[in-house]
Amino acid sequence: MKDVSEDARNRRLLGLTRNRVQKFAQDSGVPLVAGPWLGEIAFELLYWLPFLQWVVAEFPTLRQRIVVVSRGGAGAWYQDIAWRYFDLFELFTMQEFRERFPKFIKQTPRYRDYERLQYPKAESDVVELVRQQLGCQRVNVLQPSEMYVSFKFLEKTDPHWISKCYRRLPAPTLTGLGLSLPRYYVAVRFYNNLSLPMTDAHHEFVRSTIQYLSAEIPVVLLTTGAQYDLKHKDFPVELSSSVLAVSEFMTPSNNLAIQSAVLGNARAFCGNYGGLSFLPPYYDCPVFSVFGNASAAKLRHRKFASKVFAKPGLGGYWSGSLKDMTSRACADRVLEMC
After folding, report:
1. Residue 117: pLDDT over 70
2. Which pLDDT value is given to residue 115?
3. pLDDT in tens, 268-292
4. Considering Cα of 34, then 37, then 41, then 42, what sign does the dihedral take?
5. pLDDT of residue 105
6. Helix (H, G, I), strand (E, B) or coil at 71
7. Rounded to whole angstroms, how far apart are CA atoms 118 and 154?
8. pLDDT per position as a tens digit, 65-102
9. Whose CB has fewer CB within 10 Å in the chain, the N or C terminal residue?
10. Number of CB atoms found within 10 A of residue 3's CB
């Protein structure tokens, strides 16, 4: 009798992906382009990065041939995975990127559609540009669709097995970045998204939370200072002697590197659920994220993040609804983590 359980289905999906990746591993000497990743940071950190960790664990020889393509200075996330890293914001200006990839705020209108689409021409153009940069005759391509049809649906599998794909990242060095940070601090970023729309009530919550935090410990804001993503505008925050910003050091091609360096040295992170909040645990930095719209803060992704980031050596991930707490309670929870 065929096993129709969720776990069996997941094993079959991953098995199909493994067979396809094995063919790349057997194509000796040919670079494997992983990406390009054009989607949101949340899925890159929660699924795509661990998926590539699984790939190189299964096929170690690919580590010398994988070429990761992402954007915004994310190269440090892949240093133990990739042979080379290409940043889209170094290949294109921000204006060119927006003109060529306007629909890639997300990978597709609906993630579930991605597996049924042919490889989009815009992505193929990026792969061709990378091939030219590498100076090779051909490359293989590990599309994000492979992750979407297999790895992303492993939430219900054995926690011990899947936690092996989530590994602590080396803390980025601050050297050469021009940053001067306090010895101890909390990193904070609140921005408009579906789970925390920019309303007056939410703005007041953010303002009060930062006020309570900064009265006890310096706060370093991860606001970018520029609109790299037109959908996710940062909540305005007033600076002070204990509320610092690093936006002046950020550019389109290094903003994630700057934010990674700050998080890699922070005592804790506080911000809204989604996106960037999945990065701190990789640096053993505990997270407390909040949301105002529970339907947008998908429960299965929150539960999954709490499970995989509970592994020893990672920072841990907690989230809470604004309906159930005050800004004082939020600040106290974060301070307990420091």
Report:
1. no
2. 44
3. 999 999 989 999 999 999 999 999 9
4. negative
5. 41
6. coil
7. 24
8. 999 999 999 999 999 999 999 999 998 887 787 777 76
9. N
10. 9
Beta-sheet strand order (sheet of 140-142): 84-87, 66-70, 32-34, 140-142
DSSP states of 227-281: -SSTT-PBPP---BTTEEE-GGG--TTTHHHHHHHHHHT-SEEEEESSGGGGSGG
The number of C-alpha atoms within 13 Å of 191 and in the hemisphere containing its C-beta is 21
**CB count in 10 Å sphere of residue 7:** 12
Amino acid at residue number 17:
T
Question: Residue 335, Cβ neighbours under 10 Å: how many?
Answer: 18
Which tokens in the block code for residue 11? Answer: 């094993």
DSSP state of 191: B
Report phi then psi at 302, rounded to 5: -65, -45
Distances in whole angstroms, Cα of residue 8 to Cα of each of 19, 149, 155, 165:
17, 15, 13, 19
> How buried is 287 (Cβ within 10 angstroms: 0-12 exposed, 13-18 middle, 19+ buried)?
buried
- Is residue 36 reached through a cis peptide bond, with omega within 30 degrees of 0 on the bond before it? yes
Both tokens of 79, joined, read 């240093």
Q: Which residue has the tokens 């042919």?
A: 118
Residue for token pair 């640096």: 283
Q: Give the C-alpha separation, 188 to 211, whole Å.
A: 12
Q: Output the pTM of the full model.
A: 0.90
Give the chain's domains with CATH numbers. 6-163 (no CATH), 186-337 (3.40.50)
